[in-house]
Amino acid sequence: MSTTRQDLLQAFDALLQPARFKDYGPNGLQVEGRLPIQKIVSGVTASRALIEAAIEARADAIFVHHGLFWRGQDGCVTGWMKQRLALLLAHDINLFAYHLPLDAHPQWGNNAQLGLQLGLQASARFGEQDLGFMGARADGSSFASASALAVHVENVLKRSVVQVGKAQGAIENIAWCSGGAQGYFESAIAAGADAFITGEISEPQAHYAREMGVAFIACGHHASERYGAPAVASQVAAQFGLDHQFIDIDNPA
Hints:
- Helix 1 crosses helix 10.
- The protein has helices at residues 5-16, 48-56, 79-90, 100-104, 110-118, 146-157, 185-190, 203-212, 221-224, 228-240; strands at residues 3-4, 28-31, 36-37, 39-45, 61-66, 94-97, 120-126, 132-137, 162-164, 174-176, 195-198, 215-218, 243-246.
- The chain has two domains: 3-103 and 227-246, NIF3 (NGG1p interacting factor 3)-like (Udp-n-acetylmuramoylalanyl-d-glutamate--2,6- Diaminopimelate Ligase, Chain: A, domain 1), CATH 3.40.1390.30; 110-224, Udp-n-acetylmuramoylalanyl-d-glutamate--2,6- Diaminopimelate Ligase, Chain: A, domain 1 (3-Layer(aba) Sandwich).
- 36% of the residues lie in helices and 22% in strands.
């Protein structure tokens, strides 16, 4: 089975509704490739390693969370940008990228899928553009402590985490927002969270966690965003009867 580039773009846009978001770069088709599409490769970031793996997998399109173009870039096609674009253009591969729309989708997005992996059920949204999710364990239980929650996150995501704040007491209300969402911590506190899970931590959040008695857990930017892209790409591929393959390029950040 195959579809066209335009039909695929319309399907991604219909699902993720990028026009709803004020974002840091263009969402949608970032690099135009061949018209007929039979196979999609999904991944977190449009790195050279992912592009090379997609070429090896004979993909017609790549679907990612982190694309090539961001607000504030100087626009010069040199260095790493030239290398990545040269590969895409030489092999006529389409690149689709969705940033905040992929974070926010209530079922297939990064935050929804991260919650599913961690056994969390969202009951509310918070923060700028309602990107943050708030909820509790899907089975109705609580974590005995922030340390117990941190161990659970480590076991599920298979990587070490950084935990700061709230050493004692049960954890019931959990907020989470994938990637570099440390700036959402204060909104999570205001929303009543006992703990906040995101990808990264910056210097101020350690102090906020200790002073406000709310646990902050940083589990890795890449590790927290491995689930949305394959979930969305899989849904859209199934809609058209296309082949889909998720390729995870390891990243310690």
